[in-house]
Write a structure and sequence with these properties.
Layout lengths: L1 H56 L8 E7 L2 E19 L5 E16 L3 E11 L4 E10 L7 E6 L4 E7 L4 E8 L5 E3 L8 E7 L3 E11 L4 E10 L4 E7 L2 E19 L2 E19 L4 E10 L4 E9 L1
Antiparallel strand pairs: 1-2, 2-3, 2-4, 4-5, 6-7, 7-10, 8-9, 8-11, 11-12, 13-14, 14-15, 14-16, 16-17
């Protein structure tokens, strides 16, 4: 009986050992199968990626114009270059309308731009013949100098006041008054708003001119000039037979009349200053040329020129 039990136990042990071996074999097979699947997946992924890279390498990216900008003081030097013809260039400051430049399909081109005072943004574009476009947008700042307008006042030979105003910044307003009266506005130059030039008639008598100038930075300057305004004599010349009647009048008293007739000089001087002078000058045979100047006691001078034939 014991021998039978021992045999049965040995048989059971052998069966359990066989089952364990089968299970271990199956487990090893599963592991190997998993490794094989993983290797196949990695290989397939690498192949797909390499194929995508190959496809990407075959894509041609269109080139665009090159824009190079250099700042020199208050100026921009802009250079354009490309391996294809550049058909058009545009530039503008801030929101202003763009300026268009036809480049005649050059491969390279350059322009220079003055930078406006203050802070401004430049917009630049370059377009090639294939429609490819490059853009450049950048902000630049140029400091505005704090400088007052410079006013110059001078008396001309015509007895007028010449007013000159200059400023590093644009002028906003220029006004003048005589003897602290009502102000008169002088319009700035339409082509250059940094300069004002004008001639003003001087009222008769002693006067004070006051000029005030203000620029866009609200910097202002004022200059005054005391000046004496004078009247000029009135001169008329009339033909009377074979003579010329010379008439010179002035409310401020005439002092002297000088004239030249056919190169001969004459002078009419009063013993006492008078408001009117009349003189009958005989004419010579042929053509007569008259050049006459009349001067009053204030230094006001009037000139007359004329010709006549006897």
């Amino acid at each position: 009986m014991n021998q039978i039990l021992q045999v049965e136990m040995k048989k059971n042990k052998k069966q359990k050992t066989s089952i364990k071996k089968v299970i271990m074999f199956l487990a090893i097979c599963l592991i190997l199968f998993g490794i094989i699947l993983l290797a196949i997946g990695i290989s397939s992924s690498l192949y797909t990626k390499n194929k995508e890279n190959d496809n990407n390498n075959n894509v041609v990216v269109a080139s665009k114009p090159n824009i190079e900008v250099q700042k020199a003081d208050n100026e921009l030097i802009v250079k354009f270059s490309h391996d294809k013809a550049i058909s058009e260039i545009t530039y503008s400051w801030n929101e202003e309308e763009a300026t268009v430049i036809d480049t005649d399909n050059e491969l390279s081109y350059s322009i220079s731009l003055d930078i406006p005072r203050g802070t401004n943004t430049v917009h630049i574009t370059a377009l090639d013949i294939n429609g490819e476009i490059s853009t450049y947008d950048e902000e630049y700042t140029v400091e505005i100098q704090s400088q007052k307008p410079v006013i110059s006042l001078s008396v001309t030979n015509e007895n007028k006041i010449k007013v000159q105003v200059e400023d590093a910044n644009e002028l906003k307003e220029v006004t003048y008054t005589w003897n602290n009266g009502d102000s008169t506005t002088i319009q700035p130059n339409t082509t250059n708003k940094n300069i004002v030039e004008v001639e003003i008639d001087i009222p008769y008598g002693q006067n004070t001119l006051k000029v005030t100038a203000t620029d866009v930075q609200n910097e202002s300057a004022t200059k005054e000039l005391d000046v004496k305004g004078i009247n000029k004599p009135k001169v008329t010349v009339e033909r009377q037979g074979d003579s010329l009647l010379i008439i010179a009048t002035d409310d401020n008293l005439m002092e002297v009349v000088n004239y030249t007739l056919n190169g001969k000089r004459y002078q009419l001087k009063f013993n006492q200053p008078s408001k009117e002078m009349r003189y009958l000058q005989p004419l010579e045979e042929g053509e007569n040329t008259l050049i006459l100047t009349a001067e009053n006691v204030d230094g006001g001078i009037t000139e007359f020129r004329g010709k006549c034939t006897k």
